[in-house]
What does this fold into?
Amino acid sequence: MSGFSAWLNDIEGISAQQALKAGLPTKRVESWKYVPTRSLNRTGWRPATPQATERFALTGGRFANIPEVSGLEVTDEKLTPEEKKRLTGMSEAHGFGLTQAALDHSQLILTVQETASVRINLDHLANEASSAGFATLVLRLEAGAQLTFIEQFEATVVEKSNLSSLRCVITLSRDASVKHVRFQKANATAHIFSNIEVSCGENASYRLQTIEFGAKLARNDINIALAGREASASVNGLAITKGSQYHDTHLTIDHVVGDTKSEMTFRNMVDGKGEATINGRVLIRQDSQRSGTEQSIANLLLSESARVNPKPELEIYADDVTASHGCTVGSLNKMELFYLKSRGLSEADARAFLQYAFAEKIIGEIQHQDIRELVETQLLGELQHGDLIEELKESVDV
Amino acid sequence: MSQQEIDQLVDQDYKYGFITDIESDTLPPGLNEDVIREISARKDEPEWLLEWRLEAYAKWLEMTPPDWAHLDYPPIDLQAISYFSAPKKQGDGPKSLDEVDPALIETYNKLGIPLEEQKMLAGVAVDAVFDSVSVVTTFKEKLHEAGVVFCPLSEAVHSHPELVKRFLGSVVPQNDNYYAALNSAVFSDGSFVFIPKGVRCPMELSTYFRINQQNTGQFERTLIVAEDNSYVSYLEGCTAPQRDENQLHAAVVELVAGADAEIKYSTVQNWFAGDDDGKGGIYNFVTKRGECRGDRSKISWTQLETGSAITWKYPSCVLKGADSVGEFYSVAVAGKKQQADTGTKMIHIGPRSRSTIISKGISTARGQNAYRGLVKVLPGAIDVRNFTQCDSLLIGDQCGAHTFPYVEAQEPSAQLEHEATTSKVSDDQLFYLRTRGMSEEDALNMVVNGFCKEVFQKLPMEFAVEAEALLGITLEGAVG
Amino acid sequence: MLSIQNLRAKVDNKPILNGINLNINQGEVHAIMGPNGSGKSTLASILAGRDDYEVTDGEVIYMGQNLLELEPEERAWAGIFLSFQYPVEIPGVKNIYLLKAAVNAIREHRGVPELKAGEFLKLVREKLNVMQMDEAFLHRNVNEGFSGGEKKRNEILQMQLLEPTLALLDETDSGLDVDALRIVGEGINRMRSPERSVLLVTHYQRLLDIVKPDFVHVLANGEIKLSGDHTLAEKLEREGYEGIEAA
It folds into this structure.
């Protein structure tokens, strides 16, 4: 594989561990302020090798079984200057990006053809101890194309510390739309880095739903540029952080032109010694009149040692806009608990009900039934006393 | 020292020496240990304070200016500043109001400031008929009876050395940040307030302050201590635009509240904002912090920030006591080419401590206004509550409004709420008012005043009225 | 069945109840009336186990048990039901989940077998019919976006399903239009039986026209100032609370 040898050549005998270490930003970098990089530094990382699979997957930094679907084309050409620029911008945003770029195993460019409608499922597979895999995926949508892009990170039977990084550049031409769903339930030993760089042309729409249950450390850098009029973006996220997990999402939505809309809803549920960070930034530029944005961040703290660092940011240079954000931090609502208990539910069941309700606000929005059901089932497994709700769902949902 | 530098120094000395005889009152520009020794000597300070300044200077040398704020300005040459200038004596300023910039007088009149006060503000030598001294004396007697200490910090160093020594730097340590360290090394003067146990300060310390506390210098340092079960309300600054030649201001304010004590600190800041391109305005880098050290202590910051080219200011509360309360009410206006990065920090350490943050940002012309705030809840601070509301109003399409609220929650029983909105002045509201006969400017004024109401209500009564008028003046020319 | 003796309670150090004495026997319907702020709702909330109040004195014996020692869910299992003055909205939880979970939790503690899905649905439909509620209610989130009247009907629906021994109805008539008042009132009447007692808390007489109480008590300043039969309610409606408060 050329990507792999390129990696070795690029870094000229430096071990992957050293390269990683050199590229890891410190806490002095504002956007990495809360990231516990210790476990990254400690592990002696080696390049990953791909695993056998029959599905479209990213494994060991390489793509396997690239889908052959009508309307979807594997492009063997180079990156456009624009894509390059965005990849570079991503790399320069913080030191780690450069490491990611330097260590890239492979790159895949997929084009969804004009007015085609395509669904692809990408599995992230990693089950090799101390392995680190890096890749870049470029998705191009021609005018009016529609893509449903579902990413899944599943837990493996044996827990092995590993690292995977995917940089994903998505370009939507006019009238194109993407429904992007990420469901991350990797082992609690995994380190997952995702960069998602999106650019929306005129009247294009990008919808992201991201659900994080797993990983020891998961960091998402999501940058969305609304570059054409009437473009819109919506991001919907849920992270359940337990044990000693750390989840971090840094999202920026840039209203490059006017008449663009964005919304973001994010929920963190933190238990045990978990820590979650959510940074949602919206930028409305000077000429981006008649734009609107709405952000809402809710954080539920369930234990003494849980930590949460939410930060919704608005940076606004145009005056004819509507912008708002709301952010709450708290534990389970006492009145709601009392109400449920006064109806005979035990404390544990009442707590499970409310946690389920908190998560369901995000999960219930997933339009793809198969994925939604999968996520709901997994959710109930995440909750203590989730069995009551599971039984209820089976018995009364028709 | 290079020949060039020597020439410069000679040139400076010559310049000052030639014009007046105040060369003995003003040190040449530049900062080093000798300058600090000189400042301390001229103020006749005790040895411990000199040591304290030098310690701060040593720390400052290791520090770098903060770069995280949403501000854009060229590096400040701190060696180009003179660090000691004795208060102006009568006779230095204009001889009468006729010599004062008519625009300034017009503003004073709009604010309804009495003639005699105008003279003081403009730096006019006050004639003997205006007996300000007797007013001050009456105040002083009243305060003395109550046991309140209120004097310049430089005086308190001599009259109450044990108090100053105990509390100075205890809230804002010398090396808290770059500008606080600089202030600690070179601070000029400021106020010292001490309210003993159980005393309710008989008057707003504002009135006295306005008449008496001009020319505290560019490195002002204020220390207010309210012992258990006491109360004080303090107003800093002046609602009238002040003349000031110093471009950099780096002040430090420290508040200490004991159990059941309450400190209310109000600021109206209207320093020169510079011209329409931001030239010549004040750079205002301020560190203000209060500690609620006892149970149920309360610190409340209220500010109206309309001046300065650059504002970098985060009046904060460290809520150590159980059931202690922190409040921050702010209106910040950025017009012209002003840049404001202001907000607060609420650090919850004590159980059941509560905080409220209401921030109203108004941006006009090419102004950039940023709210930056931190609400932090430390482990063990159970049942903490915070409510934060940040609203931004944009007037015109060349300005900006930004919100950076940080939350760090480490305690599950905390209940924190943050809301923010950004919008322009509603055309419907303006239209409605104009159909009722109001001019566009008056209508705008009314809408903006309504927007700020929640905060103005927290200002002491007399200043609330002036604050509204001041806001009106700041908004002049914002429409049409 | 229920015996309240010298019950005193505070909230935020402010006394709300100043020595309540009240006995309710099986099958009786008692109404507690009183002006705003008299402590009516506090009494109902304390009986259901809300912990925002500090009980400073007195005791409450319910069917031989010290009620104040029980958790809210234990009280529910023991047959106490509170219809909330302001029913709580729980976004994300379907009404039917709550109903089924509650019914089965209480059945389990009474030693009767849980209802199967089919039996439960049949029962719910029957009760919905009584309350003239649409089946769509079951699949909406608990009280979320319900109108005031819908919330109150939902409370009474829950009561019908949970079949309490002692029902505490806190201002169940407030926010209801005439039709809804009739439906809710009839829903309550349908629940009256020799085994079941009801404590109605209300400000107005109008619900009492439909649900005729056996006893009426007037609460003012945290004390029962006056007790009588249902004619007392009519008198209050005519004359107001003023005279009583002064007493």
Residues 44-332 of chain A form one domain.
